[in-house]
């Protein structure tokens, strides 16, 4: 190989070499860290909510005026909803996964426990909720209709029966024997019995550290004059049922406001819009960065080719093949890129450490991003230099005899 | 001379259109990325009320569980209890004071053609309007007497008045909220709040409040907050138990007109909490805070870490673009060694050559800056599309426009300095010889 002459040629234009190397280094550092962040967001967004997301929607109803009976309206609404064609299940629900608002409490094994055993979200629902959410019972049973008690918001909540998610059951009873056990949702007795376990149902808050810990509580308990409903439809009939529900409920009672109907798909979209925006912004930066770097390599290599036309001609006249010339420029680019990548590897970790100290929840860049980045930028450099290098290889040997 | 060099520069730029385009585009993209992100960060974190942000203080007291801190890092709860809020309001030790919370009420328009709708508003005290200075279109706030009388009065937001009364002066008319009639005492004008800094517990970029009613009235209606509520032990049954509980759900602001007043209030607050400790409350160590507006915004991380990371990346990208431009200018100027040698041989000084090439890079910078400004505008449109709640902070203002152009030219000139300096080092004789 002809590495020695390449290096000595490079040493004659150190600054240009350093500039390209620096550009490659910064690009590697930024691209690795951005890709890592994108990947983390992707994993974050990918977590299943535990619901049937495609066929489900939810909305609120607010009554007004002195004569309004929230509880009676709730029961009438549910009856109406369940009779509509296309509805598979409908239930009152204080909140739904990814909606961002809801109620959480500590779940305890002892009365007046100082530190809670687990933090759980409470979904105040009825006996149709497991079906309406589209989650799956993996142990125990659903609520019985008589377990859905009338409760007043603001009073202590002591449900006799609760259903919890598997993650919560395993957290509180690591032995896997949660079914039938007693827990405290309040400081004082009476206790609540775990009658069923569902495979998964997320809390309403996507950034919660305990997102898998959810408890279903059976009660008819409007929040003032407000009730939230969740409706699951037959596959493919969601949008049509949504329109029907809006119309029927508005007709059924004029002294209330039916809030906006929102599908779970919209709710997911809204909940993760910041993450998606971050991914798009970082992706754009990566794309632009790679473009600029590639164009920089092309520009610099073109310049070098022009500058060295005479020398190339001389080499050709002395017997170098076209391939030798091509290889010269490819090797040169490889050397510069490699030097830049080595510096870039260090920079990537410097950047990662900076993020670690300045950004909550940041993690250290996993090692494999660096070799992947190396290979990608090597390829990028080689492809970028190919054009100018090919042009160089076409310089005729006769150039050597001419004055430039 | 300047205009001649400018001509030379432009001619030289035209000679290599692709290289020139590459340099201009590089700078423009770098400028656009950094300025878009910087604008969002700058406007998000900017002082919402610069003339008095150091006088408005957010009250925090640590009434949390003796066994568990509210925040792991020791910061006290971000809201206060009802009993403490009322006690501080009744003591009235600050120059102005306002407790508040968010609530939702159905609005029943008198006009039968309008459908009832849900409105998100705020219950607060009379001082709120003097403290946060919202602009009034008609009328004004209510007074402290009306607070004491639990008056059924309301201040409407601009949009609510637009909906109900077509934007007409509605002061003196009544509006029905959840079955109760309220007399309108004031209507707000457009209130351009970038961040709704007076209540950061429900997100800094929420829509403006639809209405305001007296705190005392809200409590009479037994209206709970639709904002956040946190309890560390069960509040017990019913509304009265809730009011007496240690649940936090109210935001408390005080205005203190001088540092001396701030010190006085701090000691008043400490003695209040110490007094409460005697009755068994506030079992945690004394941890009262009176952060001013900007400190409270920083504490609540109004500028999210995502925005900071994006800004950092924007500037790193600009750095790469500059390195790129330096390389390309260097290539370009080195190519012109012959021309420079000739000019030098004909008597041009190094200074002349330096000036000529610096102007050329300046032209690149200026074009990059102008294009960058356009791209920044586009970038902000994209940010508004990506973050629907950032519409108030993804806007160009004059400071940012000027900063953009200055940054672009400075960046290009800086990038041009080294290549220009190199160009000046050309020895006339050597260049002429090889030709």
Description:
The complex is a heterodimer of chains A (404) and B (435). Chain A has helices at 3-11, 14-46, 70-83, 129-133, 166-172, 238-252, 264-271, 273-307, 309-317, 322-358, 369-393, and strands at 56-63, 87-92, 103-107, 118-125, 137-140, 149-150, 161-165, 182-183, 192-198, 214-220, 226-233, 256-258, 262-263. Chain A is an alpha+beta fold. Chain A has 2 domains: 3-46 and 274-401, no CATH class; 65-254, no CATH class. In chain A, the strands form 2 sheets. In chain A, strands 3, 4, 5, 6, 7, 8, 9 and 10 form an 8-stranded mixed sheet that branches. In chain A, strands 1, 2, 11, 12 and 13 form a 5-stranded antiparallel sheet that branches. In chain A, helix 1 (3-11) packs across helix 10 and helix 10 packs antiparallel against helix 11. The radius of gyration of chain A is 33 Å and the shape is elongated. The model of chain A has no long low-confidence stretch (mean pLDDT 90). Chain B has 435 residues and is an alpha+beta fold. Chain B folds into 2 domains: 2-47 and 304-434, no CATH class; 62-287, no CATH class. Chain B is 51% helix and 14% strand. Chain B has helices at residues 2-15, 17-45, 82-91, 127-132, 144-148, 158-165, 215-220, 238-244, 259-278, 293-299, 305-335, 337-345, 350-386, 398-424, 428-434, and strands spanning 56-60, 96-108, 117-124, 136-139, 153-156, 174-177, 180-188, 211-214, 251-255, 289-292. Chain B has a 6-stranded mixed beta barrel. In chain B, helix 2 (17-45) runs antiparallel to helix 14 (398-424). Chain B is elongated. The interface between A and B is large, with 58 and 57 residues.
């Amino acid at each position: 190989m002809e590495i020695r002459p390449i290096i000595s040629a490079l040493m004659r234009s150190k600054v240009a070499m350093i500039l390209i190397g620096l550009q490659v280094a910064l690009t590697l550092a930024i691209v690795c860290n951005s890709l890592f962040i994108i990947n983390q967001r992707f994993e974050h967004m990918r977590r299943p909510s535990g619901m049937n997301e495609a066929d489900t929607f939810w909305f609120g109803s607010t009554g007004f005026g002195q004569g309004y009976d929230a509880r009676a309206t709730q029961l009438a609404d549910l009856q109406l909803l369940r009779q509509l064609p296309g509805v598979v299940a409908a239930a009152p629900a204080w909140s739904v996964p990814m909606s961002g608002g809801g109620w959480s409490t500590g779940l305890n094994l002892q009365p007046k426990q100082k530190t809670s055993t687990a933090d759980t979200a409470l979904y105040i629902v009825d006996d149709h909720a497991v079906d309406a959410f589209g989650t799956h019972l993996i142990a125990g049973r659903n609520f019985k209709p008589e377990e859905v008690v009338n409760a007043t918001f603001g009073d202590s909540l002591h449900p006799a029966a609760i259903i919890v998610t598997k993650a919560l059951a395993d957290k509180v009873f690591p032995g896997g024997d949660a079914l039938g056990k007693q827990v405290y949702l309040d400081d004082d007795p009476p206790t609540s019995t775990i009658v069923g376990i569902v495979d998964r149902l997320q809390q309403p808050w996507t950034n919660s550290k305990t997102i898998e810990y959810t408890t279903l509580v059976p009660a008819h308990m409007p929040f003032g004059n407000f009730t939230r409903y969740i409706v699951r439809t037959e596959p493919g009939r969601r949008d049509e049922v949504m329109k029907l529900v809006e119309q029927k409920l508005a007709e059924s009672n004029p002294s209330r406001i039916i809030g906006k109907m929102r599908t779970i798909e919209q709710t997911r979209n809204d909940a993760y819009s910041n993450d998606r925006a971050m991914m798009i912004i970082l992706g754009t930066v990566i794309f632009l960065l790679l473009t600029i770097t590639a164009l920089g390599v092309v520009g610099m290599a073109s310049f070098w080719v022009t500058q060295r036309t005479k020398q190339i001609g001389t080499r050709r006249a002395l017997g170098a093949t076209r391939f030798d010339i091509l290889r010269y420029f490819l090797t040169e680019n490889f050397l510069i890129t490699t030097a830049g990548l080595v510096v870039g590897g260090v920079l990537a970790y410097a950047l990662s450490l900076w993020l670690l100290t300045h950004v909550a929840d940041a993690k250290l860049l996993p090692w494999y991003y660096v070799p992947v980045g190396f290979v990608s930028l090597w390829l990028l450099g080689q492809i970028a230099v190919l054009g100018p290098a090919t042009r160089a290889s076409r310089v005729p040997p006769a150039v050597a005899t001419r004055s430039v | 001379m300047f205009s001649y060099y400018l001509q030379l520069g432009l001619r030289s730029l035209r000679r290599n259109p692709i290289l020139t385009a590459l340099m201009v585009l590089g700078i423009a993209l770098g400028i656009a990325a950094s300025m878009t992100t910087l604008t969002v960060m700058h406007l998000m974190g900017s002082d919402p009320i610069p003339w008095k942000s150091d006088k408005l203080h957010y009250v925090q007291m640590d009434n949390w569980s003796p066994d568990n801190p509210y925040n792991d890092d020791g910061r006290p709860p971000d809201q206060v209890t009802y009993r403490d809020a009322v006690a501080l309001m009744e003591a009235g030790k600050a120059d102005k004071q306002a407790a508040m919370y968010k609530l939702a009420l159905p609005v029943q328009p008198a006009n039968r053609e309008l459908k009832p709708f849900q409105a998100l508003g705020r219950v607060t005290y009379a001082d709120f309007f003097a403290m946060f200075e919202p602009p009034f279109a008609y009328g004004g706030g209510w007074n402290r007497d009306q607070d004491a009388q639990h008056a059924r009065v309301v201040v409407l937001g601009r949009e609510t008045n637009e909906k109900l009364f077509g934007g007409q002066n509605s002061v003196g008319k009544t509006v029905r909220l959840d079955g109760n009639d309220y007399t309108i005492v004031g209507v707000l004008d457009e209130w351009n709040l970038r961040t709704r800094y007076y209540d950061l517990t429900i997100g800094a970029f929420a829509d403006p409040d639809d209405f305001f009613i007296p705190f005392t009235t809200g409590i009479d209606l037994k209206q709970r907050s639709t904002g956040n509520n946190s309890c560390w032990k069960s509040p017990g049954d019913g509304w009265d138990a809730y009011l007496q509980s240690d649940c936090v759900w109210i935001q408390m602001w005080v205005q203190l007109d001088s540092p001396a007043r701030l010190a006085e209030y701090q000691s008043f607050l400490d003695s209040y909490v110490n007094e409460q400790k005697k009755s068994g409350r506030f079992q945690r160590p004394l941890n009262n805070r009176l952060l001013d507006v900007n400190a409270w915004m920083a504490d609540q991380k109004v500028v999210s870490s995502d925005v900071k990371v994006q800004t950092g990346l924007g500037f790193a990208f600009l750095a790469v673009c500059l390195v790129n431009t330096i390389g390309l200018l260097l290539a370009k100027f080195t190519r012109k060694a012959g021309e420079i040698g000739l000019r030098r041989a004909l008597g041009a000084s190094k200074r002349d050559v330096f000036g000529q090439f610096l102007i050329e890079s300046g032209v690149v910078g200026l074009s990059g800056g102008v294009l960058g400004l356009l791209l920044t505008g586009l970038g902000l449109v994209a940010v508004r599309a990506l973050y629907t709640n950032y519409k108030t902070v993804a806007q160009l203002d004059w400071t940012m426009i000027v900063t953009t152009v200055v940054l672009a030219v400075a960046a290009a000139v800086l990038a041009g300095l080294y290549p220009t300096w190199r160009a000046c080092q050309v020895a006339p004789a050597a260049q002429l010889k090889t030709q």
